[in-house]
Design brief:
Blueprint lengths: L1 H14 L5 H21 L7 H15 L3 H7 L4 H5 L2 H7 L1
Helix pairs in contact: 1-2, 1-3, 2-3
């Protein structure tokens, strides 16, 4: 599963150049866990990691470049995108 998360994190980083690989991986893990827990809470039968990967990949494809908008509406996640922004600026 780690390999799947890493591939999705790379895809997310391609879609959103403003985040680090570590931040992308954090987002993938957050989205993965959120989908699985929400799906389970809704009473649906577990469909396997392939289904979760498909949904997370679709979210990344559709919304990956707009995470900054999500953070603006949900400040509790703001630290996920800002944690390394000072270091990233110093690298450029």
């Amino acid at each position: 599963m780690q390999e799947t998360h890493e591939k999705l994190a790379s895809l997310l980083q391609e879609k959103n150049k403003g985040i680090t690989y570590e931040q992308a991986l954090t987002w993938v893990e957050l989205l993965w866990g959120d989908f699985e827990s929400t799906y389970a809470k809704a009473g649906h039968e577990y469909m396997g990691s392939e289904m979760t990967e498909k949904v997370v990949r679709q979210w990344i494809e559709n919304y990956g470049g707009q995470l900054h908008e999500f953070v603006a509406r949900n400040p509790k996640y703001k630290h996920l995108l800002e944690q390394d922004s000072d270091n990233a600026d110093k690298d450029h």
